[in-house]
Structure prediction request, 404 residues.
Amino acid sequence: MTTTAALEQLATYRAHNSRASQETFQKGLPLFQRNAYKKMGDDAWSFLEQLALASIDMGRYDIADQCLKVLEERFTGSPRVDCLHGILMEATESPEIALKYYNDLLEADSANAPIWKRQIAVLRHMGKIEKAVNELSQFLDTFYADVEGWLELADIYATCNRYENSLQALSHVIVLAPQNPFYLLQAAETAYTAGDVPLSIRMFLMVVDMSDGDDNEPLAESTPLGITVRAWYGVKLCSRRLIRDPEHASVSASQTDTPKNVALLDELATERLRIAYSSAGKKGDIAQGRDEVFAWVAAP
Amino acid sequence: MFGRLFLVVATFALIHAAYSTYEHLSRLKALNRPEGTLPLNAVYESVFALILGILGAALNAPTLKDITWAGEMKKRTIDEMDTRLGFANYNTRARHLLYPNPKS
Prediction:
């Protein structure tokens, strides 16, 4: 792969926050060893940080050490470099040592956001969930606009099966990032798991609205793609629950009303799923599993 | 293709109008009448070059990109929405899977 193409790919990974450590390492290592990063200007430092994290993820602590040395020479005493030090410590030594390092840094400066996040991450992965949740709640009280933090809180609650709390955290995420249908989908699925079926069906329909939507094509002729299919699955699940069990399923903890035409929604979801798995050619690449899907949507 | 053609024609027309104005004015200067008006043909030619150049530049522009949020979200995948890199776990099995027999 040419140097320019590799650099572009790495820049895309940085912009999209993807954690593709193996590809990053494979593309970035030759650039680092040939010292090509010196010609990159200001991007060189973010590239070095990215390569350091990817090498730690791949187990190559020697490369990470070298990247860290170059960064330290340039940015002595920077909180981001301290953070990288800490991450290397987490990977190579015991978590208690890394925790002590972070606690010392936090005593010196208690509003150091990246270090605080690492401390919370170490606490969670050591298994000290209550302490992690307390620290994370304090962190989010201080830094409300941190979408990552609210997502992490939602994830911790979901792994402990506390789905209502997870939904509350996700509602903050939706307030902070209202244009993102992926978080709305996560919230809809969490609401369904928490038992709030009317809220969940409304959220799934909102996801369909946001993610489907080639304005040039009328709805009847368009094929659902991507997360729209997942949202239609959600609508089908919810409508099936509401039809089979109207008294219990329509009791909503958030006092949401059930939509009026649930049977019609059920039919629409069935039809959309059939179309999604039926189209031939490039748009219909997800046609595997077609028979199973058709059997499932047809069952009462 | 039309855009580039129009742009080339407009450039030539403008250069031609400019050169003919220059010749006209130097002729007037040679005849010792330096305050003559610009020849009307050159004015018409440069206005024509302007209009044709605008048309050519508009047709030659690259196709418009979709910069709506919906268009941007269509290009993302669900995996990269959930990475939470600030809280990621870096204490993985990679060392033991990929380099299981350290030399030291």
